[in-house]
Design goal:
Distance between the termini: 23 Å
Shape: globular
Number of helices: 5
Order of helices and strands: HEHEHEHH
Helix content: 25-40%
Structural class: alpha/beta
Radius of gyration: 14 Å
Strand content: 5-15%
Strand order of the largest sheet: 1-2-3
Number of strands: 3
């Protein structure tokens, strides 16, 4: 949907969805505000306890690194370990469990 909708369209799409898998961005906060299950791949650029989406249906996936939080828009570390080392099997498992527990 990137580049194909405006903010109201994004709210409509997220509101009608069963959940959202996203990075730490605005749509994550919209999904949480709309009380949709939201699964966030947290990059470590910001402090999660301060900047994460709020809500009981928010699941954060993160891989702690020594350089986080860094506040950088581009990662200087080869391989971007704070995201690359998040286990995809765990993400898939948590999404399936979260979706079963929801609507």
């Amino acid at each position: 949907m990137t580049g194909k909708t405006d903010l109201l369209g994004l709210v409509e799409v997220i509101g009608s969805s069963r959940g959202l898998l996203t990075n730490d961005s605005g749509p994550a906060h919209l999904a949480a505000a709309l009380e949709r299950p939201v699964f966030v791949l947290w990059s470590g650029t910001a402090v999660a306890s301060r900047w994460r989406p709020l809500g009981s249906r928010v699941t954060l996936f993160e891989h702690p690194t020594d350089c986080a939080p860094c506040a950088l828009t581009r990662c200087p570390v080869l391989g971007h370990p704070c995201l690359a080392k998040i286990e995809s099997a765990r993400v898939a498992r948590e999404i399936l469990l979260g979706m079963d527990a929801g609507d």
